Amino acid sequence: MALLEIQRVSRAFDGVLAVNEVSFQMDEGETVSVIGPNGAGKTTLFNLITGLDRPNGGDIRFDGESLIDLPPDAYARRGIARTFQHGRVFGNLSVLDNVLLGAHSRRRATQARSSFLHLARELFYGLFWPSSVRQEEQILRAEAETILAQFGERLLPRLHQPAYSLSYANRRRVEIARALLLKPRLLLLDEP
């Protein structure tokens, strides 16, 4: 079974087709490039695959499950991560904090659905067992630092600097590191 299946997916904006009956599939571990000129619909396709937009027709399946009716955070919980065409970092947050945002859907508190009972349980858990919350945070910080180390001396020495102080290339690297911290099964890089 394919990891990702795109079946006759279309998306139009005010009558203009941005994506027209696109179909393809990807297997786990496969690398695929989507190539085309500006305005060809590449970013729109990524938005459809990650749930930021909905297709007008067709189906998107991940690991055999249709994603069409799911909210965007459900895509991340299933292991789909992405970067954006125009870099998206939080300028006033540190490099480390920007990367840690990528682990949000991996945290214990965000794993299950947000029912009232679940939220009450997590509040109780955080108030009465804060050491386990801190331990989870320490593990995620260590993972983030390991990922940042893969970029050599470009990011690790700037761990606590605000992201706005980085070069454009390093801000893009922070965005990639954030996506990697999700531990994605599918990573989409929009004009890396």
Automatic annotation (TrEMBL):
GO molecular function terms attached to this record: ATP binding; ATP hydrolysis activity; L-isoleucine transmembrane transporter activity; L-phenylalanine transmembrane transporter activity; L-valine transmembrane transporter activity
The organism of origin for this protein: Candidatus Thermofonsia Clade 3 bacterium
Alphabetized PANTHER family for the sequence: AMINO ACID ABC TRANSPORTER ATP-BINDING PROTEIN, CONSERVED COMPONENT OF ABC TRANSPORTER FOR NATURAL AMINO ACIDS-RELATED
Biological process according to GO: D-alanine transmembrane transport; L-alanine transport; L-isoleucine import across plasma membrane; L-valine import across plasma membrane
Name the UniProt record assigns to this protein: ABC transporter ATP-binding protein
Gene3D superfamilies: P-loop containing nucleotide triphosphate hydrolases (3.40.50.300)
Keyword Transport found: yes
The ABC transporter domain, residue ranges: 4-192
Superkingdom to which the source organism belongs: Bacteria
A Pfam family the protein falls into: ABC_tran
One GO CC annotation: plasma membrane
Keywords from the named record: ATP-binding, Nucleotide-binding, Transport
